[in-house]
Specification:
single chain, six-stranded mixed beta sheet, three-stranded antiparallel beta sheet, 30% helix, 42% strand
């Protein structure tokens, strides 16, 4: 039964992201969660991860995880891990700075695949690893390093 519950929680978590219900989104994560995102050298704690999530949605207000259907959604046999693979779509027409990089979109729309593996304990995410297709993203934008 936990297996089906965890898969439903993944959908509810992504739905909360899509609807920008940040309190609901935050409630899926344990206070001790550790989040790893490809391209980042250090894991994020809950606070830093939620700040980054909100800032991404501020940069890309129409960003949506396509969950109906997922490309793939499954759980481990021991019910402690879930994996979702989905399209993330949105648009951006103006240049923006993120971290040390200046992005100048070549195209207004983007669609990239993202995979998220989550470890669960007591109904909360305790570990999350996210990979997105950097090649797809970079093919849609022109990027240059800027000085701080």
């Amino acid at each position: 039964m936990k297996l089906a519950e965890n898969l439903q929680k993944v959908s509810a978590l992504d739905r909360a992201w899509n609807e920008r219900r940040w309190d609901d989104y935050s409630s899926f994560y344990s206070d001790e969660v550790v989040v790893f995102i490809n391209g980042m050298t250090n894991p994020q704690n809950k606070r830093d991860f939620l700040i980054a999530a909100r800032s991404i949605c501020e940069l890309f207000p129409d960003n949506q995880v396509l969950i109906d259907p997922y490309i793939n959604l499954f759980a481990s046999g021991n019910e402690s891990l879930t994996c979702s693979v989905a399209w993330v779509m949105g648009s951006k027409t103006d240049a923006f700075v993120f971290g040390d990089y200046l992005f100048k979109p070549k195209y207004s729309n983007y669609a990239v695949t993202v995979a998220a593996v989550r470890g669960w304990r007591n109904g909360k995410v305790i570990m999350q690893r996210v990979w997105f297709d950097v090649e797809q993203l970079l093919s849609r934008v022109s990027m240059s390093r800027i000085r701080k």
